[in-house]
Amino acid sequence: xxxxxxxxxxxxxxxxxxxxxxxxxxxxxxxxxxxxxxxxxxxxxxxxxxxxxxxxxxxxxxxxxxxxxxxxxxxxxxxxxxxxxxxxxxxxxxxxxxxxxxxxxxxxxxxxxxxxxxxxxxxxxxxxxxxxxxxxxxxxxxxxxxxxxxxxxxxxxxxxxxxxxxxxxxxxxxxxxxxxxxxxxxxxxxxxxxxxxxxxxxxxxxxxxxxxxxxxxxxxxxxxxxxxxxxxxxxxxxxxxxxxxxxxxxxxxxxxxxxxxxxxxxxxxxxxxxxxxxxxxxxxxxxxxxxxxxxxxxxxxxxxxxxxxxxxxxxxxxxxxxxxxxxxxxx
Length: 331
Fold this sequence. Notes:
This protein is α/β, with parallel strands linked by helices. The chain contains 13 helices and 11 strands. It has helices at about 30-35, 50-55, 75-80, 90-110, 125-140, 145-155, 160-165, 210, 230-235, 250-270, 290-300, 305-310, 315-320; strands spanning about 1-5, 20-25, 40-45, 60-65, 85, 120, 140-145, 170, 195-200, 220, 240. The strands form 2 sheets. A 6-stranded parallel β-sheet has the order 7-6-8-9-10-11, sandwiched between helices. Strands 2-1-3-4-5 form a 5-stranded parallel β-sheet. Helix 3 links the parallel strand 4 (about 60-65) and strand 5 (about 85). The radius of gyration is 20 Å and the shape is globular. The termini are far apart.
């Protein structure tokens, strides 16, 4: 048996070696020749899994250590019997804390308290639910938009246009697909009032870059169109600019790796179903007040400091992302 693994995925070295041949490769460089004789792949968003990679190979399982799967041609995989598993929800609390750090930084910059702002959440899944829960507890007026959930559950969520019209801050937590590609664009962004803020920690292509370049709009950006070749104009404009690391918490990465190991172990019959990285403590979710969060968040997620390397051009996008020191979740 052979498993090909993106070498940037942490904690996995040595885990599968007692049971299989393992190749650790740079995600972008994984080729058809590399996977031809592999039964399973463990990848990130940097590996495009489609016919050009997979056709003629022995691959029957792709475990992506990510929430999203827009880098995988799901139709091709279904048609050719390739099972795809994700790590959905693995880093939701890490993304929550990145968003919280952004809100705390905004409050410091603008001198507001939560009761003075309306927060619109687009996408109320694993991350959006947490943002909603904590933001409401902190005192924000919270509006939600999630058409698929609204259609299923009739929760009283608003349309995207209604949320945009009423929000001071819009935070995006949707998957990238045909429906959400450029869901925020030059026409509907005009619904936001002057000085409003868009926070994007979902996927870069959810927002048309040109829409964010409006002079009267603020933005905090973790995900970018055309990564790693990001738009210099947007980089200059963003008051938070991080290299796709909003979910890069220690616990989030450990969860993603453990979920990927379980998927491969289950498929290939390996005794690793209860594996979890040694030395990593599980998250300890708890309530935290706005004042407590603002007082502590800088110790765990200092977005002023974390934005400097990208904005100053002291390192390239991919190296910053690959060398990022994982944050510890603290609430």
